[in-house]
Design a protein that fits this description.
2 domains; 71% helix; flat
Length: 77
Amino acid sequence: MCKMTKILDDILRLSVSERILMVEAIWDSIAKNDEHLELSVEIKQMLEDRLENHRKYPHEGYDWNEVKARIKNKSDA
């Protein structure tokens, strides 16, 4: 068994909330080195479109804390 397979097996034994926390920690570690992260033209355009939509309709949607709470509530059910 290769090392990555073992790591993945260990991760999949965690609860959903623990895996979400792990993903957040991994993403935070990637974001610290975001100067090395290249975005495609399509992704950049999608982000620009979403930002423009948010500026037009700032009260639509959910903030990040609401989204996390909904995910956590689903995983605890």
